[in-house]
Amino acid sequence: MPNDFLSIIIVCSLIILSYVFNLVSSSTRIPSVLLLIGTGIGLKYGFEYAGVNWDIPMSFLSILGTIGLILIVLEGTFDLHLEKEKKNMILMALFVSVLLLLLSSFTITYLIQYFTDSDYRSAFLYGLSLSVISSAIVIPSVEVLPLNKKEFMIYESVFSDIIGIMIFNLVAFSNPQESISWYKPIIEIGSTIIVSIVGAVLLFIFMDRIKLKVKFLFLLALITLFYSLGKLMHLSSLLLIFFFGLILNNSKLVFENKFGAWFKYNWENTSTVLREFKVITLEFSFVVRTLFFMVFGFSMNLSLLSEQEIIIAGSIIVLIFILVRLINLSIFLKSRIFPEVLIAPRGLITITLFYSIPEEYKIANFDEGILFFTILATSVLMMIGLMAYRERKITIQSRY
Prior knowledge:
Blueprint: H1 4-28, H2 32-50, H3 58-77, H4 87-116, H5 120-131, H6 135-141, H7 147-172, H8 183-209, H9 216-232, H10 238-249, H11 251-255, H12 258-262, H13 267-299, H14 308-332, H15 348-354, H16 369-388
Helix pairs in contact: 1-13, 2-13, 3-6, 3-10, 3-13, 3-15, 4-5, 4-7, 4-14, 5-7, 5-15, 8-10, 14-16
């Protein structure tokens, strides 16, 4: 076990290296996530060569994933502005994300059942985990795209995360003897949306009334607490985070009315708070994302990726993702399918859901190497799409 000072040196060096990766990513369009995972893999073999034993428990990865997800969704909402002309784009992103998630999940479910002879519920949980697009990877990677494409991808990935978690909780934590009626998901989603909107509004009012100078870490701790409590009750608390970020970023639209006048809403005060909160969220998000993907790379077992069965199974799964995405985007977005068709990385949510599958639904002969392969392959495809895409030199107007 390395001493404390060596650990501090390693962590600080990794954060500095991550800043360098961001600069490299902005100029080469290689997703910084791939560079972070590669660094984690390199560290693992470097430590093994040096004879240093540094084990990182999966619980640490899970904690980083939870905090990272909250910060990354908040970070993503800071780029989303609610405007009437964007209503069609938001609805389309919601429709496409749900459709792609379900089609991919059902297709992969039947594939898993065919090869593993598992029951439908277990196979579906694995298929759903592999089908959720990672907003943690999409949000920092689409900065190079025009605004209309960037906003669509952020909405789609965040919706995919939220809906994926809600369906996962509904399937994984319901009574195994009880069939899931068609109306239960509607009730679950409807009640979660209502509770999340009310909670987000109350959080905003509370934040607006805090007069202490040190309040942002307190607010982040409060948000994380609510998220964790919701997870314990198997609710999609991510929706609360999403609505809070949207309300904070669009407070003028939401509160310039009688309700806002009732609690003495002031745009100048809110805009100041928003600027400061953005900076803190971006900084914390950067650090947590850096540590999460490096730790994930460090924990990967690359020997699994050399097995022919995993390569074949993983390739089939990724091909299904791309074909389902290509067909649906061609139908609903028509000319706007590149590079969106290749921007469907799996990452933080897939890892979190995969390791959250209850023991009674675990499939013994499902190799986690397929998880590693899927994450790496979809990230590489996204990199190819971003590097091949070239924005027109003229100003691009939103077509939504």
